[in-house]
Amino acid sequence: MLQSVRYRVLPWSAVISCLALLFTALTSLSGQAAAAPSMPPATTRIAVDGSGTGRTFDGIGAISGGGGNSRLLIDYPEPQRSRILDYLFKPGYGAALQLLKVEVGGDTNSTDGSEPSIEHTRGTVHCDSGYEWWLMEQAKKRNPDIELYGLAWGAPGWIGNPGNTPGGGDFWSQDMIDYLVDWLGCARQHGLDIDYLGGWNERGYDTVWYEKLHAALAARHLPVRIVAADSGLDVADTVAADPQFADSVDVVGVHYPCEGGDGGSADTCASSDTAQATGKPLWASENGSLDENSGAGALIRSITRGYLDGRYTAYLNWPLLAAIYPNLPYDTVGLATADQPWSGAYDLGTSLWTTAQVTQVTRPGWRFDDQASGYLGGDRANGSYVTLKPADNSAYSTIVETSTASTAQSADFTVGGGLPTGIVHIWATDLAAGGRGFVHTGDVIPRAGRFSVTLQPGHVYSLTTTTGQGHGTAVSPPQGRLALPYRDSFEQPVPGREAKYLSDMQGSFETAVCGGGRRGRCVRQMAAQQPIEWQDDSDAFALLGDTNWRDYTVSSDVRLEQPGTVELIGRAGEQQRPQSHQAGYFLRAADTGAWSIVRSDTAGRLTTLASGTTRALGTRHWHTLALSFSGTTITASVDGRRVGAVDDSAYPTGQVGLGVVGYQTDEFDNLAVTPVRHPAAPPAALTAGLPATVQRGASATLTTTFTLPATGGAATGLTLTPGTPANWRATPTTPVTFAEVDPGRSVTASWTVTAPTATDTPVTNTFVPLATYDRGGVRHWTYGAASTRVPIPAPTGNPYLSDLSFVAADNGWGPVERDMSNGEQAAGDGRPMSVRGAAFGKGLGAHAASDVAFHLGGDCSRFTATVGVDDEVAPYGSVVFSLVGDGRTLAATPVLTGESAGAVLDVDVTGVQELHLLVGDGGDGNAHDHADWGGARLACGE
Q1: Does the annotation count 286 as an active-site position?
Q2: Contact criterion met (CB below 8 Å) for 769 and 689
Q3: Predicted TM-score (pTM) of this structure
Q4: Phi and psi at residue 274, to the nearest 5°
Q5: What is the Cα–Cα distance from 79 to 67, expressed in whole angstroms?
Q6: What is the pLDDT of residues 182-212, one digit of tens each?
Q7: How far apart are CA 195 and CA 227, in angstroms?
Q8: CA distance 835 to 658
Q9: Catalytic residue among 119, 286, 561, 667
């Protein structure tokens, strides 16, 4: 806590008595150190003066979008929904945000979901699409002075695409300018005036397009200020060099300018002399990506040090809150979490109260006082402080953070120059886990304009002469489960909205008038073509429900409007970026009658577990699909007929969902999730055996045994297949088909399998034998598994490691790449490797944390490489490279950043059997940690 000291003269007896009382109080305080520090704490002298000058403060805000991160909030029950909104926007209650940035929806995933467009197809504008209008209305209702800011992450696929070529949209087109103007018109219909408008989130900029946008707004007399470019700092150089572009831009908006980038430490922040000299406000127009609690220290550093180091005058936190399902990325990132609309439960993060430390004691339009802002004791390790005041000098506030300090310290304030010298109110947030947020700790009455305070480490303090601050009192109810059965006929009163609890992941699923002669409303997938995307493509799908749902049947009526395939999703669990990396099971049904049960995983792999053909569904007719889960048995049904069942244990619980393969505008109705009342029969088992090791080109015997449990019906028409990995050969040595297997009985089949000889043959090879059969009138699929190791021969000569087989490879973002940089999450999406301009044609592109293992067999003597952070992320990123042989560290670099020159490694590896190339983060998280092993090579025997 912050303690105040008033200056007055006391008699010695009083001094002695006060010291005794102080000693007693200090020793009784819980959590205080048992002994005083050996050295007195440093004292910082802060002179707050009415003549102090600095830049204009533009506000603190947050971002709803990028994407879908506010989705579940609108479905919260009252009064919890209003209470959450109060905590975010109501002045004197919680975060009291001064800016709200929202996504201009584009039907495409932009991190945690997709947000709907107002114009899915050219010429049809629907101004009620989505929930951002509602959110902005609620924000304005609570704070009429909040400023609004729109930005697109993607766009409908028809934009800049007159030929409607799949994937052929052009964001930097006149269509997009017209679309944004229509979006501004929709805002007006909702009684909203948009104050700021950006271009394309984190996708650079087109100067001519910005100039045309500026002209379009001016021609329509729309008083909207343009932010450029919601990407990197390089836009400031273009503003300085191009007067016409500069005339079209009102604000320079930079993303993640502080140390570590998104999710980073923010111990330092960067801008440039050019950026500060443009004459335009310089904003951190997106920052954050931080946990609601543990990220609070970095959040306040981004604000205070953002101004001190880079002169950033606005800060917008991504995201506003995590009102998303807990199986999605970034599920605890933001100012609060709200992931259970059915129970009304929510959680307020320390970051919300840290934000209040600024917003509740300042107003946009105030100015920073540079002379009363700086680092405590002149050392950023002690913390930082900024002072702000209005133009009329009627108040002032100083925000102090000691987030990186280790001991208590003092600050002596002197106030003058016409500023008020009356009572100073002190509010504090303890950044430690479980610490109290935005607590009024007391008041200070300056004497002759002077007062002192003691600052504890790990805190944020606000010292202000303003009043009206407050800490909201509403309390969340407890969390609960979403009970089954759950049903939705989608008969909500306002069309063009997402159905209750249904969260779009890609495309746009909205309520609409049913087709096919059906009365009432249904859900239709509205994106008719691939959008202009912000991250990778996927099928259009949406998720709903409790991630703890276990044994249930999910069913829905479906209507295919065009030839294609619809999906029903069950046991949907963890999702990684991009959204195609969704764990779960998918029942796919095509208009032709072809159906399949597909397992998807968090690496984006799709495995068809069962498939077949039933009566054709055709188009423009209603049918019913169902997917049932009972233990490990998954059963698919079409129009009430069970078409197939498979046993798979990958995912025991999860949500449900709706989807289409591609972007057909198909319809869904009468969604139902009902608990399984009668468990499935005990499943059959398929076991398999292989030798532990098979040499390249050698043969071995694979044996499989199919066993039926003693209860349940017989299996008929059984066929066993070996499920060989790629490039293996298999020849049966026994019968592999069986007319019938009785309950409690087993049958066995064998194959001779031969390993490949290719150098890229994996070390670990897994066979997935399959049994297909009929049981209980339903076709069944049962899988087994057996693995063998194919050793890698020891390398010879002077090979590049990118030409050798990996024993194993783990990577922090996407796969390890050969002869290219790490890139993004897809294989082969890197670029030519370079470190500070030095190019490497050969090498490995990795991302912290990474571990790539190679078999040397004791036959190599030296390893050489040049390592560093790839230029594709410079100046961000900070990594440590190390070389480990047989468990012993052979070499390690210091921390290398996106500004460090490449480090040369020349290491003795004599006798090493297995070599590991490791990349760790630099101690500030692994954001932007793209690491190159440039020219990595071995010297080995012949």
Answers
A1: yes
A2: no
A3: 0.86
A4: -65, -45
A5: 25
A6: 999 999 999 999 999 999 999 999 999 999 9
A7: 10
A8: 45
A9: 286
